[in-house]
Amino acid sequence: MEKRKTYVEDLDRGLYDIRNEDRYSFKVSSGLTPEIVEEISREKNEPQWMREFRLKSLEIYNKLELPTWGPSLDELDMDNIVTYVKPDTSLKGSWEEVPEDIKNTFERLGIPQAERESLAGVGAQYDSEVVYHSIREELVEQGVIYTDMETAIRDYEDIVKEYFMKLVPPNDHKFVALHGAVWSGGSFVYVPAGVKVEIPLQSYFRLNSPGAGQFEHTLIIVEKGAYLHFIEGCSAPKYSVTNLHAGCVELYVKEDAYLRYSTIENWSKNMMNLNTKRAVVDKKGTIEWVSGSFGSKVSMLYPMSILRGEGAKAEFTGVTFASKGQILDTGAKVIHAAPYTSSNINSKSISKGGGEAVYRGAIKVAANAHHCKSTVSCESLMLDDISRSDTLPVLDILNDEVDIGHEAKIGRISEEAIYYLMTRGISEEEAKAMIVRGFVEPIAKELPLEYAVEMNNLINLEMEGSIG
Predict the structure, then answer these.
(1) Is residue 418 domain-shared with residue 295, that is, in the same domain?
(2) DSSP state of 447
(3) What's the CA gap between 61 and 64, in Å, rounded?
(4) Residue-level pLDDT at 336
(5) Is 295 in the same domain as 418?
(6) 3 state SS of 16
(7) Are 294 and 420 in a shared domain?
(8) How would you class 379 by CB atoms within 10 Å of its CB: exposed for 0-12, middle for 13-18, buried for 19 or more?
(9) Domain boundary residue among 268, 301, 334?
């Protein structure tokens, strides 16, 4: 069957768009059948329970309908999506052993350099499998586990079986069910009680194969009193066929533990990004999300925090940049399921060239969740009169003893500010870029230095040619 073509207009994204020859050691046929799902499981040599889980997820997928809200997903045709592409290499523990073309891709993206300079551990996924993984020896000695999900199922099966897709079950929505059927790759992190991982761990996901899907699963467990900062990076080169990203992130933050989860998603504009991320937080625990969404043609992404322990906290800081041909429907959800819990959502979106940026969020306060606090702030900046920005908040409050606030601002870029900067000898293009960088600065300062630099570079790329 011929792959459906879609017209993809994109700016020159430089190193992000450099693609390699599509080499692989194993690849399933396009489409989605029980035979393909069993083939993936066999190739991975999985235990029987996981094979059965995949097939059950596929059954659920076939019964569930597409979302009836949000952006159109009509261009997504699963008959044309290849759900599993195994790269032409096995998992390596030494960077020197990774094949040259794959290594060069990650070198260009700055991964090994970042590892050497400022990370405690790195995982690098290429298409459907993790090709490189490392962790500092002192963390291993403290009992920290950081590995790919395939190794985790083999070496830590009891832990994985206890937690895997319990927080995000396959019947949650159609794309979670799809994920349960064809997931591959991703990261497993376990931080023992009381251990502070002072230097971040990072996983980077690179999709190279055209017409493929990436379905990595990330499972992180931070035990009582432990501390972790985890960074996720994603990118893909541009193709003229639709690619799909439907990953899943499950985060377990135990009593008095702290987890910061930072993401820069920089997919190309032929990508449907339908990711699901969820955290559950116990007594006095803290989850912090820092999120940057760029690139993809369509995004639907709403990280959820379930505050089930008294005094638990959630913070979400996010920026979205939608340009021509993009609908980025993003936001955050918080469920206050216990007393004295608190949440703070700070979302900023930018749209230009006819792009659509939508903030879609929800705050739910359970009947027993007295004395909880929540603040939601959404700010949208439109760079022209053909772009669109929407704010769609839902507040579902079942207790009167609460302090809830919501603020939304939508505005055009200030012509007076641009004129003022131009009178100081700054070009109109740079003046606009300066205003945008200032607008997102609160998010940039929450990121480690190299990621703040990457985000500013992405903003500069998006700003090119934005005048007129």
Answers:
(1) no
(2) S
(3) 5
(4) 98
(5) no
(6) helix
(7) no
(8) buried
(9) 301
- φ, ψ of residue 205 to 5 degrees: the values are -115, 120
With tokens 């009178």, the residue in question is 423
CA 287 – CA 285 distance, rounded (Å) = 7
The band of 25, judged by pLDDT with boundaries at 50, 70 and 90, is very low
What are φ and ψ of residue 112, in 5° steps? Answer: -60, -35
Q: At 46, which amino acid appears?
A: E
- C-alpha 402/C-alpha 413 separation (Å) is 35
Residue 78 lies in a domain: yes
User: What b/e readout covers 419-457, taking b as 16+ CB neighbours within 10 angstroms?
Assistant: eebeeeeeeeeebbbebbeebbeebbebbbebbbebbbe
- Does residue 345 lie within any of the structural domains? no
Asked if the structure places residue 408 within a domain, the reply is no
Give the domain-ending residue among 270, 286, 301. 301
Residue 409 predicted with pLDDT over 90: no
Tens-place pLDDT, residues 426-449: 988 888 888 888 888 877 777 766
**pLDDT tens per residue across span 309-318:** 999 999 999 9
Distance separating the N- and C-terminal Cα atoms of the chain = 41
Number of domains in the chain: 2
Prediction pTM value: 0.87
Domain span including residue 84:
14-301
Same domain, 92 and 238: yes
Please check whether residue 382 lies inside any domain of the structure: no
Residues 323-355 have pLDDT tens digits of 888 999 999 999 999 999 999 999 999 998 999
Per-residue pLDDT tens digits for 387-405: 999 989 899 999 999 999 9
